[in-house]
Amino acid sequence: MKFDVLTIFPSMFEGYFSESILKRARERGLLDVRVHDLRDWTTDKHHKVDDKPYGGGPGMVMKVEPFDLALKALKVKKGDRVVLMSAKGKKLTHKDAVRLSKYKRLVLLCGRYEGVDERVAAHLADEELSIGDYVLTGGELPAMVVIDAVSRHVPGVLGAKESLEQESHAEEGVTEHPQYTRPDSYSPKKGTTWKVPKELLSGDHAKIAAWRKKRSKSKKK
Ligand code: SAH
After folding, report:
1. Residue 174 is inside which H or E element, if any?
2. 82 to 1, 23, 77, 113: CA distances (angstroms)
3. Using a 6 Å cutoff on CB, does residue 131 contact ligand 1?
4. Per-residue model confidence (pLDDT) at position 63
5. Which of 25, 69, 150, 206 could bridge 157 with an S-S bond, Cβ 3.0-4.6 Å?
6. Is 130 touching ligand 1 by the criterion CB < 6 Å?
7. CA angle at residue 46 from 42 to 49, to 5 degrees?
8. Distance (Å) from CA 51 to ligand 1 centroid
9. Number of other residues whose CB lies within 10 A of the CB of residue 33
């Protein structure tokens, strides 16, 4: 699967995609993440990507032209999806991550400052996504969140198939049971021990399954 990101801060992405699961997936050719500097598509000598808002008000608004020229250069095709990161967009859920993983390519547009000229949302983006009801300084972290959440659903990116199916939100409103690993008994200080629930140590698969079922959380309950 391909990801193209349009941002004025391309270097913010390097670290995140050069580690762990996403790094391996890129090396294995499962993911192709390309980060582009929006300033490459400015036409004035100062490489201006923003300007004052019409109607007045504080701050600067990102211009439509660099986004449009960049998308033209990236040759967005049918089967690609252009997503604008936006605090007023639809809130990202597990379902969106699964849905977006079916596209051949996602093009993620990152805003900064007071936001992006509305014509980007109206004419260039297929959808607007928010990662939560709060405002960040830019769309870079949200774009990384989207790429990370979507990538996990690209076949082969995660090792064992089960690690996707049994996880939180795979079923709507349901979160995973608690997990434990060695040691089965831990003493952070004298007189205190934190123990792993005995059911998990029992070796009895039915007992373990029942415990896990009981301890996974459902909003429907
Ligand atoms: N004035 C805007 C916020 C601009 S924040 C408003 O009140 O809605 C600058 C940029 O950061 C936005 O254009 C968007 O790309 C990104 N951003 C900020 N918060 C976000 C969020 N919760 N989800 C996704 N993108 C966000």
Report:
1. strand 174-175
2. 14, 23, 10, 20
3. yes
4. 98
5. 25
6. yes
7. 45
8. 17
9. 21
What does the alpha-carbon distance between residue 14 and residue 31 come to, in Å, rounded to a whole number? 14
From CA 194, how far away is CA 180, in angstroms rounded? Answer: 11
CA-wise closest residue to 201 among 184, 189, 188: 184
Q: Tell whether ligand 1 has an atom less than 6 A from the beta carbon of residue 61.
A: no
**62 CB-contact burial (10 Å; exposed 0-12 / middle 13-18 / buried 19+):** buried
Token reading at 137: 């300084």
Residue 145, phi then psi, degrees to nearest 5: -60, -45
Ligand 1 pocket test target in 85, 107, 108, 130 with most atoms within 8 Å of CB: 85
Strand pairing report for 2-7 and 32-37: parallel
**pLDDT tens-digit series, residues 23-41:** 999 999 999 999 999 999 9
Distance set, CA 218 to CA 67, 92, 179, 203 (Å): 42, 19, 17, 26
Report, in angstroms and rounded to the nearest whole number, the Rg of the chain calculated over CA atoms: 22
- Residue-wise pLDDT for 184-205, tens only, equals 999 999 999 999 999 999 999 9
Residue 153 CA to residue 186 CA, distance in Å, equals 35
Q: Which ligand 1 atom is the nearest neighbour of the CA of 135?
A: 19
Structure tokens at 2: 């391909």
Say which amino acid occupies 29. Answer: G
